[in-house]
Each structure stands twice: as structure tokens, then as C-alpha cells.
Design a protein that fits this description.
heterodimer; A: 261 residues; alpha/beta; 11 strands; 23% strand; globular; B: 955 residues; Mth169, Chain: A; seven-stranded mixed sheet; 32 helices; 40 strands; 33% helix
Chain lengths: 261, 955
């Protein structure tokens, strides 16, 4: 396939759709940004795409809980379509609010039952924070990162509810066993560290996870905010690189789709 | 009939909101608090079965991992008996609660219908506190009683759906034969804020019509003539030192723009925002508003709707701009003032501060607009009148900058519904605050719903690009009355008020007309586009309603249920306001220079200044704002090796993938204004401009905004200082070649208590915006490599008047920093050549705290030390004192880092302006400054300096 097609799903309060589109296009994909109402009125629309992306934002104001209302819309209306999508080896990405949606819809860490097994709750600091974090890639299970050979990525987080917790330790153990923990917050040396390196108090410093197939990835940090060389906060110190670390993720995913479709 | 579901964290999880509340209560020093747990309460109106309630809880409200729930019809659950003090807080009927709307929408998704939803917070406090203390906790820490109801157990909350009360009745106000006293009474009782001259003009008009006005007509006139809407003081006649100034704005701020006549100024002082050219396809619009009075009463809601309002200004500029950045500047009282010193009727400054920041955060972040720039200023005189400046810049296609309404176009209101919120905001903001303002004007305060506005924005831009409307404006102060009055000014309009969608029944026609309910825009839609535009909004659940049409007869006609309730000539409405002549005087306040003994070491003074509220790190605030959404960030507000140094200005790229950028900065220093408002303004302009230069910009394409916040300008001394400030706007902007493109004023910022009147210091905010051709030449403020040279560009004078150095020693002083704009322009132009050559490694402007503070900030942001020698500083006159050089706040000065290999090139470029090579960057993390006497006068580890700078606001 020459240009994989990406559907960016938006609704009331989505606000990172445009830069996510830019990142995918830069990586060589064709992108449509589609409102949830349009998708719900024509569910087979999904068939035209190989990647579904849920961008960051505050869908429905994060009222009740971050991502909850959109999660319900997906869970109660699109279960079959999503299952088919995954069966066809296609990819789903949730960034920040999109990750919260995937977790609350029960698509992560395990999508089979559509039951919520984990959560992203209030940061330990109990406030929204925008800061840059170092992420260790701890597994190559996800098709969004499996060919990236950089051990640590530098990306920003911007959220108030990003503390990852599982329903019980069995869920966590299963995730670890299946190598579903993809990103962990670390310090600049790549070592495990506390706040502010781990900005929210996530268990095991978890920043991003995939499902058992490796096709669904959810992450709190924003890869689309470190795509261009000038996104990096210290570029005036270290000079301009060819692209930002986050671009690797889009590149990797688009390459997977090119190779497999 | 209602039921309730309570959602709360499981015992094994920390309750973050409860923990927060606990620490807030502790700050107030109230009782011995063991724990606070918070329950989110949802109240559902209508009949629901237990099964349905269980479903609602499980499917929607509860996070099964961390939370429990219970549903009950009782407020008080027996299991809680005796364990806790219980306080429940909910928004008053009619006050916006975005969560209610979201829950109703989400219930539809799971096929459950309810009559209504209300939310509340239930605080379970385990503490040994008295009844009085509990009351204080409830009203001073947890709730704002202007907008919220408080129930302290054993009082049980009774919730009702907001229901109708008023029935239609046309109201006429007898005024034609009223005496002066009666006229004033009518104005005061109706909260019209019209003075006697204005009331007489209205009386005259109705005499000629041989009838009495209706209430809605009078309200329309009051809104349109309010200070907030027409700036009658600044545009009136002023007698200043015996000289008549006819329209101060036209003679100063607007005059400079006219004279400079820059070809890139597209639209100035007429639309909702000023517009300048950006590139071949786009223009940039920029506006800064104040939202002071509402923020004094309800900080969160005031700031929240302040952002919402200025964002709508951008959405209503031309045919609609897309917001690309926010900038927010606040002025507060001193945050650590003891609670007992707070004047009655005011909120504690710390509470105001936190509320305002949260309001800005929640609205800006939800809208997806990066908050990239700002400043916070503290002075004890802001205690009764905090200032909240909200600014937004937007991008707009070049062919979408003009708009015209045509007769027979439909009037369409889109977005939020109309409620009883914000009644009399425009007239309220034009009056002084006093102890009772909290109670009287509570209704003027409101809470925004950012998601509604985001939905309007998303759909509006689609409608704009399809050319489905011909004109647009936002509903701001004065609501529909101002928006439609303005759009139909040259034509006339006919409005059917019963068609306006309401949040709840029972609003009178006048309330509908003047309500300042948020998130509404008014469009003028050609008839043939009606169907398409309504469908477009409907597709994304945005309400759009035709409520009338424009006419050609220059009359404003208002109907309710087919009865005419108001009929006004547009000409009288917009031109009938009598012009006032006011007296203004200005005298030098006569401060003297203090005498301070010289010291051998100034390290302690430096750390003290770094810890001053006005200088210390604002990271606690900045991090709560999303400053990177939209992906255009180039220079962030926090810079340096650990991303925590104070950047001078921000740079963003509005178009992804292109290297053309915009720079936004601001300048303000009210302390100088106490000595002379002229030099305060000159310094503010210089500061805003030098920040642009510092980050690698230049003066070629810079536009300014002015925001005047003053005391009661009916008093000649206040008006006199304002005149002097405006004159500086003209002089300095003209000399620098930087036009003003928009501005705003907020007067009457005085707070009256029983014993005194607290007047804010004269405060002018200058916001600057500049187009940067290639953002790759951006410069940050952190030092980069050891061995690099440090230059001070510009001239240092004996200008400690109003400085932080004097302030920490308890003095004001007389020698306020002045601006030599001819020299300043040359200095800035020359330095911008150097930065464009890429030979400036870092640059930081010297402002508050002078050279010493700038050097410390550069060093600790970069993580290296510095050694500097004051003998190399270029001074004017005979300065023999180290403290003067270290801390003087002289304008147009920059600390610049240059690599040794660029020394010759840099000095060649700079040869015609003043600079001194003070020293260099050192590996050793120590700031060492050598005085005029060749002795070390400062030697401090950068970590100690950074700690002094960071500790005050590490909340």
C-alpha cells in the first residue's frame, strides 16, 4: 500500500486532531478527521481505513471522568466494528484523552471483553501539568514502536488524569507477562524515578500500554507534539535534529501499514 | 421527585480532591483536620427505578477500579452517623454547570431519560472543629456563596429543578416628567449606571416621541452607552492642565497608528480585534480584554468567562478567526496577607489567585488553545480589585477579514442557551465595587462552558469556509442587545425574543435581551443559506436558531409573542450619548530618593529580590496551562537545561510545517506609575519590545495593544494620570514605529470600605505581537556553554525609582526609569541584526531587579556560573555605587551571550551602540560579580539563587 488511510475521530472537546493529522501526513498517511456523529450514522465508514486514532483533548469536557462519555459511545455502538477492525490486523492509537477513552471503553489493556480493567485517574499532584518526560521503550510488542531502535524518547505530557492503575494485581501481572507495558517514565539517564519524572504517580511508572495483539496502543504523552525539530524544548541548546522523537511512532505505524496492506 | 447517586473513592485510594481541600483548610489554620473525603453527588429529577439508578452508576458515573457508589433518596446515610461533619455544596439554580449538560447527553447514549440533573459535592470532614469553624470552612474555603448553596448537616439540602416564575407583562418606565432626583433613582434602582446627563438626554428623546420608554428600551440604551461598551471617558472631552483634549484615544493611541500608516495594518480599532498581515494567505488578529469586576466576586467564573469572551472576540473578528494562543496577565493582592487583614467584602488574594488560575486553565486547556505568555503582578492595592487581562491571538484567511450585514439577512444565534446569568455585566463592570457588591451583583457573575464554545468554534469555521454567513459578532457584554444593536447599526433589526432558546423557562423579555449568557455568537445569514447553515450546526449538536432579521429602516424593533416591546432609532442609540467634559490634573507626587548605606556584599539582597512575589518563578502557574497544544510551539515559556527558566517572550508557528512565526510579549510595571505614569507606560512599551528583540525578533512588524485599568476617572487626579499615560503611548510608540491596533479600558477600579477607598495603582498593560520571518533564529534566555562571553548591551543610569531594590528596603524613590526611544530603537535594531546572524547564543532583557536578576536567571536556567565585572558596564553620568549598577532598572538593556569565536563579528555589528563586555560563562555553578572597587560583591551558587527564586510559589 502506498498511502495508508487514517481516521482521526473527533467530537465535542477534541483538540489535538489537527497536529495529529499533521504528524500522520508527515509520516506518509492520508488522513480524514471524522466527527463521531458522522461515524455513528455510517459505521461501515471504518472499513475504508487502516488506522483509527483518538487524539488528545477534553471530550465532553472530561465531565464525569476523563474520556468516559466518548468511551461509552464507542462501547455501546461500535463494538462489532472495532472487533472486525482488529481482526483485520489494523491499528488503533489513543493519545492522552484518547488513551483515557480506550481504557474506559475496555479496549486496553484487553479489548476482548470490552470490560474496563484499568483506569487513568487523577495525578498524585492533583493538578493538570504540562511538562516534558523521558520514556523508556520497554517492549517491542506494539506495532507502533517495534522497529524503533532508540531506547528513550523525549515527549511532553499535558494532563490532570494520567495515573495508570489496574483493577487488581492479576491484570497487572498479565500485562507484564504479555509484554504489554510499552512505555515507562524514567529520568534523563533512563533510570526509574519518582515525581516529576513520573508526572502522575502511575503504577510501575507506566506511561503507555498496548493490548494482547500489539495493535492497540494508548499513551499519555503526546508524540504529535514532538514531530518537528523545534518542538523539543532545548533545541536552542543542542541544535536542530531532523525530526522530533515522537515522529518515530507515526513513522513506525505508517510503515507497518505499508508493509501489511 | 428526585434521587441521588454518590460516587467516592474506595478507602484504599487517596482522594486527591479531599487531600487538596485538607491542605486548603490547614492554610486557613482552622481546627485539627484528620481527613477530608469528597463525594461527587448526582441528583436526578424524574422517576427512576433502582435498576436504572444502578445502571447509571455502573455504566456512566463510577470508575470501577478506584471508586464506589451508593444510590439513595436520603442525603444522610445512617452508616455515616457521628463520624464526620458533612457539608454539601451545589450551584445555585440557574448557574451554569457543564457537568449537568454532559450527563444528560451521556444518559441518552445509554437510553435512560431523566427530567433534569444537578450535581453537588459532599465533603465529609473528620476533624475537631467548632460550628463556627465549620461555617468558615464551608463559606471561605469550599464554596463561593455568590454562586453556590451551602448545606451543613443537620441542614438537609432540598433540590428543585429551576422552574418558571415570570409571566409576560410589558413594562413601561415613567420618565418623561421625572425630576432629577427621580431620574437618578431610576438609574440606580435599575442598575443602569447612567449618570444624570445621560438620563436627561434619554428623557429629552422620549419627550420628543411623546411617550414613555419601555424597560427593554431603557436597558438597551444603558448597555449601549455603558463605559464598558463605548469608552465614554477616553473618547470624551478632557480638560487637562487648562488644555482641552477632544477624544483622548483619537489624539494618542489611535493617532500614532494613523501617522505610522503601516501597510501591514489590516484593520485597527474597529472590529472585535486588531488585524495585521501574516503571510501571503493569512492575517493575524489579536485582542486583550479585562474581566476584573466579575473576577473580584467569583475568581474562577470571572477568569473562565474572561477567556471565553476574548476567544469569542477572535471568533467574531472579520468572518471569524481561529484562536492560536492565549496570553494572560493578572494583578492580585499580596498572597500571604494574614486573613484578618482582608477588608470586608473581599476574598483572600491567595484564593483569588488560585481561582483565577484555575479558571484560565480550565477554559484555555479545554478549548485547546495554548496559553503561552503571561505575567502576574502583586500589590496590596489590588486586594479589592484584582485585575484579570485575557488575551487571544487568532489566524484568519486574508479574504475573510471584512464583513457586511445586508437588509433581510436572518439573525441567527448559535451556541449556548440563554439564561438569567450575567444580567447587568456591562453596567456592573462600569461601576465601583464596595462591600455589598458581592451580594448585589452576584447575578452578574457566571461560569463558562468551554466545550460548548469549542463546538461552536469547530462548526463556525466550517460555516465560514463555506461562506454561509455574511457577518458575525460575539455576544459579550450587553448580550444580544449589544451584538444585534452593533450589527444592525447602519440598517435596523427586528427581533422576536420568544424564539431565543432558553436554559429554563421564566425569563422576562428584557432578561432574554440583555442576558450575558456565555458561548453565544450572532450571525447574519442570507436567506438562501438558512437550511444549509442550520444543518451544519445541527450535525455536531450545536444549537442554531433564527431569531429575527435585519431591515433597512434604521430602527431596532423588539417583539415578544407578537407584541412590540421596544422600538428605538439606531441613530439615537448609537449617537445620542451626550459627550462629557471631565477635569484632569496631574502633579508630581514628590517622592524623594532614599539614602541607603553601601554594603560589601549584595548576595542577600539579590536573593531577597529573587524571592519577591513579582519576580519569583511562576512555574506553578505555567505548568497548569497547556502551552503546547496545536503543535506550534517554538520557544516555550519555561526555558533552559531543566525547562524552568523564565523566557522573555514566546514564539509559535501558527501554520504547521512552515517556519514563519509570531512572537507575543507584554510589558507592565505599576510601581513606576506611582512616581510618574508617563514613564511607567514608556517603560512598559520598552519592556514588551525588548522581549521581542531578546528572543530574536525585530521592530519591523510589531503591533501593540493597550489595556488601561484605572481608578475612578471622575476624579481629576485619576484622570490626569491616565492622560499622562496615554501621552506616553503616543510618544514612545511613534518613536519606536510600533502602531497600536486595538485596546480596552477598565475604569472605576476602586474598592470602598467603611473606612477607606482602596484605589488600584494606575495599571497599563502593553501587549506586543510580532511576525518573525524565520523562527530558526529564535534565541532563548539560558546560558549555553562555559567560556562564552557575556555582554551588557545598553546604558545603565541611576534609575532605582520604583525598583525592587528600593522596595525590599521600604522605599519608592524618585528616579524612575525613563526611555530614550531614539537610542532605544537604534539599540534594538542593531541587536536584532546580531541575532539574525545567529551569533547570539542567549539573550535576556534586564527588567525588574535589573542586571543582577537578569544575570542570575540566565545562569541558573542554563546550569552554569558566570563571572561579571561591573567596571565594564556602560553608565550614564557618574555612578560610583555598586548597588545602583546591580539593581537599576534602566530600560533598553540586554544581557547577551556570545561565543568567543564570534566576538569580533558581534562587536563589529554593535559598534554604534553602547555595550560592555562584562565577563563570561563559567563551568563552576557560581554567579560571581566583581564591583567597581575590584572586590567580589556577589558570589552565590546558582542553586541557592534558583531556590530563592523558586521557593515562594512552590505550592
Amino acid at each position: 500500500m502506498i498511502s495508508p488511510k487514517v481516521l482521526i475521530l473527533r467530537t465535542a472537546g477534541t483538540n489535538c486532531d489537527n497536529e495529529t493529522k499533521y504528524a500522520f501526513e508527515k509520516a506518509g498517511a492520508k488522513v480524514d478527521v471524522v466527527h463521531i456523529n458522522a461515524l455513528l450514522s455510517k459505521k461501515n465508514l471504518l472499513e475504508n481505513y487502516q488506522l483509527l486514532a483518538l487524539p488528545g483533548g477534553f471530550t465532553y469536557g472530561d465531565d464525569v471522568a476523563a474520556g468516559k462519555i466518548l468511551a461509552n459511545q464507542i462501547k455501546y455502538n461500535l463494538e462489532e466494528e472495532i472487533k472486525t477492525f482488529i481482526d483485520k490486523k489494523k491499528l488503533i492509537l489513543g493519545i492522552c484523552n484518547g488513551f483515557q477513552v480506550l481504557v474506559r471503553a475496555g479496549l486496553l489493556p484487553s479489548f476482548e471483553s470490552f470490560q474496563q480493567e484499568a483506569t487513568l485517574t487523577h495525578n498524585d499532584s492533583n493538578k493538570f501539568e504540562d511538562r516534558w518526560v523521558h520514556l523508556k521503550i520497554c517492549s517491542d510488542k506494539s506495532f507502533f514502536i517495534n522497529k524503533i531502535n532508540v531506547p528513550v524518547l523525549y515527549l511532553p505530557v499535558a494532563h490532570g488524569e494520567g495515573k495508570f492503575l489496574t483493577k487488581n494485581s492479576a491484570v497487572l501481572e498479565k500485562m507484564i507477562k504479555n509484554r504489554q507495558v510499552i512505555f515507562q517514565y524514567v529520568d534523563e539517564k533512563g533510570e526509574k524515578a519518582g515525581y516529576p519524572f513520573n508526572p502522575n504517580g502511575s503504577i510501575l511508572n507506566i506511561a503507555g500500554v498496548c493490548d494482547q495483539t500489539g495493535q492497540i496502543l494508548g499513551m499519555m504523552p503526546h508524540p504529535e507534539r514532538n514531530v518537528d525539530p523545534m518542538h523539543q524544548p532545548c533545541w536552542t541548546r543542542i541544535g536542530l535534529k531532523e525530526f522530533g522523537d515522537g515522529f518515530l511512532i507515526f513513522q513506525n505505524a505508517v510503515q507497518y501499514l505499508k508493509d501489511n496492506f | 421527585m428526585h434521587s441521588r447517586i454518590e460516587v467516592f473513592f474506595k478507602d484504599e485510594y487517596v482522594d486527591p480532591i479531599g487531600e487538596n481541600v485538607k491542605s486548603e483548610i490547614e492554610i486557613f489554620g482552622l481546627g485539627d483536620i484528620k481527613s477530608v473525603r469528597v463525594r461527587q453527588v448526582y441528583i436526578f429529577f424524574g422517576k427512576l427505578t433502582d435498576n436504572e439508578l444502578d445502571n447509571i452508576a455502573k455504566k456512566l458515573l463510577v470508575d470501577s477500579v478506584t471508586q464506589h457508589y451508593l444510590f439513595t433518596s436520603d442525603f444522610f446515610h445512617p452508616s455515616l452517623h457521628g463520624q464526620f461533619h458533612i457539608i454539601e455544596i451545589s450551584r445555585k439554580p440557574g448557574v451554569m454547570d457543564p457537568v449537568e449538560q454532559s450527563v444528560i447527553k451521556a444518559l441518552q447514549d445509554i437510553n435512560i431519560s431523566v427530567k433534569g440533573v444537578k450535581t453537588a459535592q459532599k465533603y465529609m470532614i473528620d476533624a475537631a472543629v467548632s460550628v463556627e469553624e465549620l461555617h468558615t470552612i464551608a463559606t471561605k474555603v469550599l464554596a463561593n456563596t455568590n454562586i453556590e448553596d451551602v448545606f451543613i448537616y443537620p441542614e438537609i439540602p432540598k433540590y428543585q429543578q429551576t422552574v418558571s416564575c415570570a409571566s409576560f407583562k410589558k413594562k413601561v418606565i415613567p420618565l418623561v416628567n421625572a425630576e432629577a432626583g427621580q431620574l437618578e433613582k431610576i438609574s440606580a434602582e435599575g442598575q443602569l449606571s447612567l449618570n444624570i446627563h445621560e438620563m436627561r438626554a434619554i428623557q429629552q428623546y422620549y419627550k420628543s416621541l411623546k411617550r414613555e420608554p419601555t424597560d427593554i428600551e431603557l436597558e438597551t440604551i444603558a448597555q449601549t452607552w455603558s463605559e464598558h461598551c463605548v469608552h465614554k471617558t477616553l473618547k470624551g472631552r478632557i480638560k487637562f492642565n487648562g488644555e482641552i483634549i477632544d477624544n483622548l484615544l483619537k489624539n494618542t493611541v489611535m493617532k500614532v497608528t494613523e501617522e505610522l500608516n503601516k501597510p501591514w495594518c489590516v484593520s485597527v480599532f474597529k472590529d472585535n480585534a486588531g488585524i495585521i498581515e501574516f503571510d501571503e494567505n493569512y492575517n493575524i488578529c489579536f485582542k486583550v480584554e479585562t474581566h476584573n469586576h466579575p473576577s473580584a466576586i467569583e475568581p474562577y467564573g470571572g477568569a473562565n468567562t474572561g477567556i471565553g469572551g476574548v476567544v469569542r472576540d477572535i471568533m467574531g473578528t472579520g468572518l471569524g478567526g481561529k484562536p492560536i494562543l492565549n496570553t494572560d496577565v493578572f494583578c492580585f493582592g499580596i498572597p500571604d496577607i494574614p486573613p484578618e487583614k482582608i477588608p470586608k467584602g473581599t476574598l483572600h488574594p491567595k484564593r483569588v489567585f488560585k481561582g483565577v488560575v484555575a479558571g484560565v486553565r480550565d477554559y484555555g486547556n479545554r478549548m485547546g488553545i495554548p496559553t503561552v505568555n503571561g505575567a502576574i503582578y502583586f500589590d496590596e492595592r489590588y486586594i479589592g480589585n484584582p485585575l484579570v487581562f485575557c488575551g487571544t491571538a487568532g489566524i484568519i484567511p486574508k479574504n475573510m477579514c471584512q464583513k457586511t450585514t445586508r437588509p433581510d439577512d436572518l439573525i441567527v444565534v448559535v451556541g449556548g442557551r440563554t439564561g438569567r446569568d450575567g444580567i447587568h455585566g456591562a453596567t456592573f463592570s462600569s461601576a465601583e465595587l464596595h462591600e455589598q457588591s458581592e451580594q448585589i451583583s452576584g447575578g452578574a457573575v457566571q461560569i463558562g462552558n468551554a466545550i460548548t464554545e469549542k463546538m461552536v468554534l469547530d462548526t463556525l469555521l466550517q460555516a465560514r469556509d463555506k461562506r454561509l454567513y455574511s457577518c458575525i459578532t460575539d455576544c459579550g457584554a450587553g448580550g444580544l442587545s449589544s451584538a444585534i444593536g452593533e450589527m444592525g447599526q447602519d440598517m435596523g433589526a427586528c427581533v422576536y425574543l420568544e424564539k431565543v432558546p432558553l436554559k429554563y423557562e421564566g425569563l422576562s423579555y428584557t432578561e432574554i435581551w440583555i442576558s450575558e449568557a456565555q458561548e453565544r455568537m450572532v450571525l447574519s445569514v442570507p436567506k438562501e443559506k438558512e437550511k444549509e447553515i442550520l444543518e451544519l450546526f445541527n450535525a455536531e449538536n450545536v444549537e442554531a436558531t433564527v431569531i429575527g432579521h435585519f431591515t433597512g429602516d434604521k430602527m431596532l424593533r423588539l417583539y415578544y409573542d407578537s407584541e412590540m416591546v421596544g422600538e428605538l432609532e439606531m441613530d439615537f442609540l448609537h449617537n445620542g450619548l451626550p459627550r462629557l467634559e471631565r477635569e484632569a490634573i496631574w502633579n508630581e507626587p514628590g517622592y524623594e530618593e532614599p539614602f541607603l548605606p553601601e554594603k560589601e556584599n549584595y548576595g542577600t539582597d539579590l536573593k531577597k529580590i529573587l524571592s519577591e512575589w513579582n519576580i519569583c518563578s511562576k512555574e506553578w502557574v505555567i505548568r497548569q496551562y497547556d502551552h503546547e497544544v496545536q503543535g506550534g510551539s517554538v520557544l516555550k515559556p519555561l526555558q533552559g537545561v531543566q525547562n524552568d527558566g523564565p523566557g522573555d517572550a514566546c514564539i509559535i508557528k501558527p501554520i504547521l510545517g512552515k517556519n514563519k512565526g509570531i512572537i507575543v510579549s507584554n510589558g507592565m510595571n505599576p510601581r513606576y506609575g506611582d512616581i510618574d505614569p508617563y514613564h511607567m507606560v514608556a517603560s512598559a512599551i520598552d519592556e514588551a519590545l525588548r522581549q521581542i528583540i531578546s528572543v530574536g525578533g525585530n521592530l519591523k512588524h510589531v503591533a501593540l495593544l493597550d489595556n488601561f485599568c484605572w481608578g475612578n476617572t471622575n476624579k481629576p487626579d485619576r484622570l490626569g494620570s491616565l492622560v499622562r499615560a496615554a501621552q506616553a503611548c503616543y510618544d514612545i510608540a511613534a518613536a519606536y514605529g510600533t502602531p497600536f491596533i486595538s485596546g480596552k479600558d477598565s475604569l472605576n477600579n476602586e474598592f470602598v470600605t467603611e473606612t477607606e477607598t482602596i484605589v488600584i495603582p494606575p495599571t497599563l498593560l502593553i501587549s506586543a505581537i510580532s511576525v518573525m520571518d524565520d523562527v530558526r533564529s529564535a534565541v532563548s534566555m539560558d546560558v549555553k556553554e562555559p567560556g562564552n562571553l557575556i555582554y551588557l548591551v545598553g546604558v545603565t543610569r541611576n534609575e532605582l525609582g520604583g525598583s525592587h531594590y528600593y522596595h525590599i528596603h521600604g522605599y519608592k524613590g524618585r528616579n524612575v526609569p525613563e526611555v530614550n526611544a531614539i537610542l532605544g530603537k537604534k539599540t534594538m535594531n542593531t541587536l536584532s541584526i546580531a541575532t539574525s546572524h545567529g551569533i547570539v547564543r542567549s539573550c535576556h532583557d534586564c527588567s525588574e531587579g535589573g542586571l543582577a536578576v537578569a544575570a542570575a536567571e540566565m545562569a541558573f536556567a542554563g546550569g552554569y556560573g558566570m563571572e561579571l565585572n561591573l567596571s565594564e558596564v556602560v553608565v550614564e553620568g557618574d555612578i560610583k555605587r555598586n548597588d545602583t549598577i546591580l539593581f537599576s532598572e534602566s530600560n533598553t538593556r540586554f544581557l547577551v551571550e556570545v561565543k568567543p569565536e564570534h566576538k569580533m563579528q558581534f562587536e563589529a555589528v554593535m559598534k554604534d551602540v553602547s555595550y560592555g563586555l562584562l565577563g563570561n560563562v563559567r563551568q563552576k555553578p557560581c554567579l560571581k560579580i566583581i564591583g567597581l572597587n575590584n572586590q567580589i560583591i556577589i558570589e552565590e551558587y546558582i542553586y541557592a539563587l534558583k531556590e530563592a527564586w523558586q521557593s515562594p510559589l512552590r505550592w
